[in-house]
Structure formats: C-alpha cells, structure tokens
C-alpha cells in the first residue's frame, strides 16, 4: 500500500513539473471544469426554479 502512495505522489510531482514548464496545458483542465459546472447547473437549475427540489426532499 505504501508503494502505491509513493508511486502516486511521484506522478503528482512529475505532473506539476510538466505544468510548470508548459502553462498552456492548464487551459484544458480549466475548460473541462467550466464545462462540468455548466452541465451540473443545467440539471440542477430546473429543480431549483420549479420547486421540484422540495418534493424530492419531502418538504412539499
């Protein structure tokens, strides 16, 4: 188990080093994060705006 954590930490450090060398690579994770938030909002907004959220929560 400790070897697995060590390997993961080495991968994180190597990834951080690559990102330090090429900052343009940060564009893709940022765009992915924005897209994920927009998709999540497209599912959550109808529930929040129509009051259906209370029905599922048992308050309505």
Description:
- This protein is mainly alpha-helical and 60 residues long.
- It has a domain at 22-60.
- Helices cover 83% and strands 0% of the residues.
- The longest helix is centred in the middle third of the chain and has 24 residues, at 27-50.
- The radius of gyration is 20 Å and the shape is elongated.
- The termini are far apart.
- 0% of the residues are buried.
Output the number of helix runs: 3
Inertia-based shape: elongated
Q: How large, in whole angstroms, is the Cα Rg?
A: 20 Å
Biggest sheet, open or closed, and with what strands and sense?
A: none
Give the end-to-end Cα distance, rounded to a whole number of Å.
48 Å
Q: Regions with pLDDT < 50 over 5+ consecutive residues? A: none
Give the overall pLDDT as a whole number.
88
Q: How much of the residues is beta strand, in percent?
A: under 5%
The SS-based structural class is: mainly alpha
Give the strand tally. 0
Could you state the order of secondary-structure elements as H and E? HHH
Secondary structure: elements and pairs:
Layout: H1 2-21, H2 27-50, H3 52-57
Provide a concise account of the structure shown.
The protein is mainly α and 60 residues long. 83% of the residues lie in helices and 0% in strands.
């Amino acid at each position: 188990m400790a070897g697995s954590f060590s390997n993961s930490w080495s991968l994180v450090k190597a990834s951080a080093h690559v990102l330090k060398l090429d900052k343009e690579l940060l564009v893709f994770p940022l765009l992915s994060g924005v897209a994920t938030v927009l998709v999540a909002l497209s599912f959550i907004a109808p529930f929040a705006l129509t009051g259906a959220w209370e029905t599922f929560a048992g308050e309505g």
